[in-house]
Design a protein that fits this description.
mainly beta, five-stranded mixed sheet, about 55% strand, elongated
């Protein structure tokens, strides 16, 4: 199952083009995860984002939703080998104090079947922890 996830990641990176310039009047949120996992911006304040690689937003209060995909074991196949499947989860981060010109990063990952994501500032301080909205195949 890793092959389709890898192909999708490569395809998105190849088609997406360069990131736009940062607007100093807005906050910039980038995304980070470990290899074999896929973390994308999904919604900003309940509206779909145009580019899943980042959020650029006005200062103040915002709700960010990200989509995290990762591999989990799904049992053993007919050949006796362990198999995996891709788990997709939506996570929501609420943060009341985004600052113009500041950079932030959302780091995401998994612990077993459980997803996690945290918002960090430029000094690597944890500002917010995501709440899992739902996981499944969607």
């Amino acid at each position: 199952m890793r092959y389709p996830l890898l192909c999708l990641s490569v395809l998105l990176a190849a088609c997406a083009g360069p990131l736009p310039s940062r607007d100093p009047q807005q906050a910039w949120v980038s995304l980070s995860t470990l290899p074999g996992q896929w973390l994308m911006a999904d919604q900003l304040d309940s509206r779909p984002v145009n580019d899943g690689r980042y959020f650029q937003l006005r200062p103040g209060v915002h709700q960010l939703q990200v989509r995290l995909q990762f591999e989990v074991p799904s049992g053993r196949g007919g050949d006796g080998l362990a198999s995996t499947h891709t788990r997709t989860c939506l996570l929501r981060l609420d943060y009341p104090a985004f600052v113009a010109g500041q950079g932030y990063v959302i780091k995401g990952g998994q612990q077993g079947y459980r997803p996690w994501a945290r918002l960090y500032d430029e000094q690597r301080q944890v500002l917010a922890r995501a709440k899992v909205r739902r996981c499944g195949t969607f």
